[in-house]
Every structure is written in C-alpha cells, then in structure tokens.
C-alpha cells in the first residue's frame, strides 16, 4: 500500500465514517465477540514458554504432531468438527490470531459463535498482532496459516498453565453474553417410545351414507 | 414538532438497532423465511440514513446468506469446510472456504489464501544451515523486488519523455560517427 498523503487520508477517512453504535447492542454484543484479556503480553509469553518453545524442539526433531505431549489441533476442519460434537468433551483452550492481517476475517468470523454454542467448554483467547509469526515459527505445518491453535485441557496439559490463562480472562459478565445465540444451541430431541396395540381384526368398511332425505 | 440533531440521531440509532436485533432474533423464531424481509428492511434503513456499516456486516455472503438473508450461525444454519484446490498448470493450490446455507442450500466459496507448496522433508542439520541463509536471502530478495518495481516504473516513464528521446538519437549519431572513424583507421592500417 502506498504511503502517500492522499492514500493515508483516504484510509483514515474511511475509518471515521463507519457506523459503530450498531455493534454495541447488548442483544448481539458484537463488540465483545472476542473476549478481552487482562494482560495480552503475559498470555503470549506464557504460551511461548509453556507450549511453543517445546513445539519448536519437537518440530526440529521431526516428531509428528499426533505424538506431541499434548492433544493439539491446528486444522480448521478438525477444530470445527471437534467443537461441533453433540456431546460435551474435554475442555479446550482455543488460541486465535484474529488481529493478523494475513488471515481473512471470513475464516474466523464463525469461531466466536461456534465456541459459544459448542457443548464443549471453550476458553477463547485472542492473540495480539504478530502472533501468527510466532506460531508459524514454532509449528512448521501449513495448517497453522489459519491462525488457530486448540489445546485440550486433559492430564497432559500443565494445570497451572490452565489456571493462569483462565485468570487472565476478563470476568465481566455482560461482555461474555450473546442472548441472540442462547436458543440456537444444539439440544437433543427427547424421544419417548409408547407401547400401544392395534386390533388384529381388519376394519369393517363403513356403510355408505344414505343420502339426505327431504 | 421537528427534532433537533441530537434527538434525530438518537431516534436513528434506536431504529437501526431495533431492526438489527430483529434480524438476529429470526433464527430463534424458527421462521427462516422471514429473514430476507427483515434484512432488507435493515439495509433499507441504513441506506436511508446514509450510514456506512462496518465491513463485518456488509461483506457479501459473509455474515448473512446471500440468497435467503439469514444470519449465519455455524451448525445451526451453516456448514463450513476448508478445502485445498489445485490451480491448473501450476504447482500452487488455493485454500478455499466453503459455506453451505442449511436453510436454502445456497453454496458459497471464499478464497482464503494460497497454500504453501509442499516441500520435501529436509534433515535437521540441513534445516539449520538453510534457515539462516534462506531467511537472510528472502529479506534481501523482497527488498530488491520492491525497489525494482518502483524504479522500473519511474524509468519507463522517463524513457518516454522528449528530452530522453533526443539524447538517445544523439547517442546513436555519435555511434555512427565512431563507427566511421574506426573503419577509416582500419582502412589506413590495411
């Protein structure tokens, strides 16, 4: 993009014009669709120290992702199908690079909705700008280009890591509510079977109705 | 009674927000047939007030289905899939996000990016050596390419100017003269 004065002016002018109040509606709550963190830098450092640095070593010694010491998913389709399960499964932390411009917004648009209506408890963590390069550097797989990293919170994951991440989540109740999605969660239909009987005898054909007599 | 500016804006905000909330309420009412109607009403209102909506709302086929107008909610009325498709005659493949609306069956495709060309596995030691070299080279390459593109354009522009063409012609004439003198010398020597 050119850095001429005119181009800059255009860019900022466009920004000013956008009508924002619509996103503040408490019903849709789009402004808070990505949960806020208390200290983003701390979370990035934590992720780097606990997970990414080890990933880097594992990568260099060419250990496949399936054999890593945690259960990690980075493929978009796999993550979506994991969160779409109709029965609750192991809690997860989902790291998303939603600030990086390399990732088109259309790809991540449904992620907050998915993690909200999912039966699985998802801790959605948005990473600051530039985190995609960190992930790319640690996990050398083309799937990481989507900027998604899902870690299952089972015994393999350090429990202090989990508590530290959770303590960084903004606990403002209003911020994490999306009333318009509340009725859209998957609910299994409650089917009950009723035992009944029917007579074995075949039905007697009805008598033809007599015409109305005047 | 006419409203002043502040009151007008308040009225506008409320109206727009109500319409937007209605659009989002439709999926839970389970009457998806109405979604197009309400979305149109919302869009018309924003047009009437000449509002520039955020791109997350206006991106075509993104937030709303382009055919029936329902708000997309994954697993409720939307199925997504990310696929890779090879571009014919090249090594590259494109990453494509497929959307399918479960209300009307409308299918969409979004180009998400180019998938990296698969590289043959390299041993660890080779990688280490290559990494430093490649990263350095890449940086240099990109810089040169960027500079070239700008300068090339400038050069092309310059080449078409009148003074340039004149100087070119002059040089050609000089060359011709030189050629003559050389031929004379060679003649003398011979």
Automatic annotation (TrEMBL), chain A:
GO BP terms in the entry: intronic box C/D snoRNA processing; maturation of 5.8S rRNA; nuclear-transcribed mRNA catabolic process, RNase MRP-dependent; tRNA 5'-leader removal
Any one Gene Ontology molecular-function term assigned to this protein's record: ribonuclease MRP activity
One Pfam family from the record: RNase_P_pop3
GO cellular component, one term: cytosol
Protein name: Uncharacterized protein
Gene name of the encoded protein: NCAS0I02620
TrEMBL record, chain B:
Highest taxon listed in the record's lineage: Eukaryota
Disordered: annotated span: 138-190
Any Pfam family the entry gives: Rpr2
InterPro entries recorded: Rpr2/Snm1/Rpp21
UniProt GO MF annotations: rRNA primary transcript binding
CC per GO annotation: nucleolar ribonuclease P complex; ribonuclease MRP complex
Biased composition (Basic and acidic residues): 138-152
GO biological process, one term: mRNA processing
Protein name, per record: Uncharacterized protein
Naturally occurring in which organism (per UniProt): Naumovozyma castellii
């Amino acid at each position: 993009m050119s850095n001429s004065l005119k181009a800059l002016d255009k860019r900022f002018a466009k920004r000013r014009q956008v009508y924002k109040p619509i996103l503040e509606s408490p019903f849709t709550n789009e402004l808070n669709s990505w949960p806020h963190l208390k200290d983003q830098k701390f979370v990035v450092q934590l992720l780097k120290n606990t997970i990414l640095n080890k990933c880097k070593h594992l990568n260099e010694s060419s250990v496949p992702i399936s054999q890593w010491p945690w259960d990690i998913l980075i493929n978009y389709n796999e993550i979506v199908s994991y969160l779409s399960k109709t029965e609750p499964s192991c809690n997860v932390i989902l790291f998303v690079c939603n600030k990086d411009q390399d990732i088109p917004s259309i790809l991540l648009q449904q992620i907050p909705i998915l993690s909200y209506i999912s039966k699985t408890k998802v801790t959605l963590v948005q990473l600051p700008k530039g985190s995609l390069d960190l992930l790319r550097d640690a996990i050398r797989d083309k799937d990481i280009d989507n900027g998604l990293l899902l870690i299952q919170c089972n015994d393999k994951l350090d429990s202090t890591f989990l508590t530290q991440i959770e303590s960084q989540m903004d606990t403002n109740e209003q911020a994490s509510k999306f009333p318009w999605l509340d009725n859209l969660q998957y609910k299994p239909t409650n089917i009950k079977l009723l035992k009944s009987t029917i007579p074995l005898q075949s039905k007697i054909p009805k008598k033809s109705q007599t015409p109305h007599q005047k | 009674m006419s409203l002043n500016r502040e009151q007008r804006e308040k009225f506008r905000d409320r109206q727009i927000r109500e319409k937007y909330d209605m659009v989002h309420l439709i999926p839970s009412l389970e009457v998806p047939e109405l979604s197009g109607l309400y979305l149109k009403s919302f869009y018309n209102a924003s047009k009437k007030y000449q509002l520039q909506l955020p791109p997350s709302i206006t991106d075509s086929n993104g937030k709303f289905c382009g055919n029936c107008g329902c708000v997309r909610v994954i697993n409720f009325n939307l199925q997504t899939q990310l696929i890779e498709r090879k571009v014919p005659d090249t090594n590259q493949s494109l990453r494509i996000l497929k959307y399918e609306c479960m209300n009307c069956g409308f299918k969409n495709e979004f180009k998400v990016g180019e998938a990296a060309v698969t590289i043959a596995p390299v041993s660890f030691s080779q990688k280490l050596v290559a990494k430093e070299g490649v990263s350095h080279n890449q940086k240099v390459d990109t810089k040169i390419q960027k500079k070239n593109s700008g300068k090339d354009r400038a050069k092309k522009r310059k080449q078409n100017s009148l003074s340039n063409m004149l100087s070119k012609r002059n040089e050609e004439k000089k060359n011709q003269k030189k050629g003559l003198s050389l031929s004379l010398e060679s003649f003398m020597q011979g």
